[in-house]
Q: What sequence folds into this?
C-alpha cells in the first residue's frame, strides 16, 4: 500500500532560522514520483518540486533544498534562512506510475515563521 | 495559456441541496483529477477522468457523489443532498499524458 507520513504536525521557528520538514513514504512500486506542495493561508496549492524514483540527486532551489534518500524512504525539505512568507502548510506527496498517476498526499506540516 | 479554472471559488449550500463544482482543465489537457481536502487534512484523491470516461473512482463516496467530464465543456463534480460532512475544499487537477498535474485554486464548499 502507498502511504506518505509527515510526522511533524506543526513547527514554529524564528525568522532566519533553518527548518527541515520530514517526509517518509511507503510504496511497493519501483517507479514513483515524489512531490512537495505549499499551501499558503490563501488556500491554493503551489507546486514546489517533483522528483522521480530514479533520481536521488539532491536539489537546491534558492533557499529551498530537498534530500531524497531511497534507503530510508525519505524525501525531506529544508528551508534555509526562513522568512515570514514561508509560513504555510507544506504537503509531501507520492504518485505511483502504474496507478494512473493519482497523487497520495501526507497530512501536511503547518509551518509558522515568527518575526 | 490559462491555468486550471474552478468555479465557483466559494459555494454555500444548505443541507439537502445539491452542489455542482466545475473544473476547466488547461488547454490540451484531457485528464482530470478531483481531490477533497477536509479541514486540517491533506488532499484525498476522489476520481480520475478522461474525456467521457471515468478511469478510477476508487476515492469517491459510493452515494450522492458523481463526476463527469463530457466531450465538450468542463468537468463537473456533483454532490447530491449535501450534509455538513461534505464541507471541504475540492481541488481539481489536469494533466496532459504525463505525470504532471496542475492544480486549480479549489472550490470551498460550506454546508450550513
A:
Amino acid at each position: 500500500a502507498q502511504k506518505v507520513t509527515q510526522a511533524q504536525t506543526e513547527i514554529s521557528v524564528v525568522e532566519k532560522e533553518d527548518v527541515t520538514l520530514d517526509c517518509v513514504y511507503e510504496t511497493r512500486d519501483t517507479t514513483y514520483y515524489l512531490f512537495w506542495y505549499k499551501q499558503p493561508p490563501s488556500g491554493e496549492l503551489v507546486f514546489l518540486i517533483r522528483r522521480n524514483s530514479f533520481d536521488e540527486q539532491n536539489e537546491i532551489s534558492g533557499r529551498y533544498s530537498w534530500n531524497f534518500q531511497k534507503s530510508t524512504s525519505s524525501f525531506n525539505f529544508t528551508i534555509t534562512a526562513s522568512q515570514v512568507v514561508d509560513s504555510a502548510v507544506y504537503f509531501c506527496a507520492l504518485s505511483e506510475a502504474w496507478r494512473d498517476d493519482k497523487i497520495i498526499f501526507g497530512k501536511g506540516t503547518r509551518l509558522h515563521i515568527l518575526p | 495559456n490559462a491555468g486550471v479554472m474552478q468555479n465557483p471559488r466559494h459555494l454555500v449550500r444548505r443541507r439537502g441541496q445539491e452542489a455542482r463544482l466545475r473544473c476547466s482543465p488547461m488547454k490540451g489537457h484531457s485528464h482530470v483529477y478531483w481531490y477533497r481536502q477536509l479541514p486540517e487534512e491533506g488532499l484525498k484523491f476522489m476520481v480520475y477522468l478522461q474525456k467521457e470516461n471515468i478511469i478510477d473512482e476508487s476515492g469517491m463516496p459510493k452515494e450522492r457523489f458523481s463526476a463527469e467530464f463530457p466531450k465538450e465543456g468542463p468537468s463537473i463534480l456533483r454532490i447530491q443532498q449535501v450534509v455538513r460532512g461534505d464541507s471541504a475544499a475540492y481541488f481539481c487537477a489536469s494533466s496532459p499524458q504525463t505525470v504532471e498535474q496542475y492544480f486549480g485554486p479549489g472550490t470551498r464548499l460550506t454546508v450550513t
Q: What stands out?
A: The mean pLDDT of chain A is 93. The interface with chain B takes residues 4, 33, 37, 43-45, 47, 50, 91, 93, 95, 97, 99-108 of chain A (CB under 8 Å).
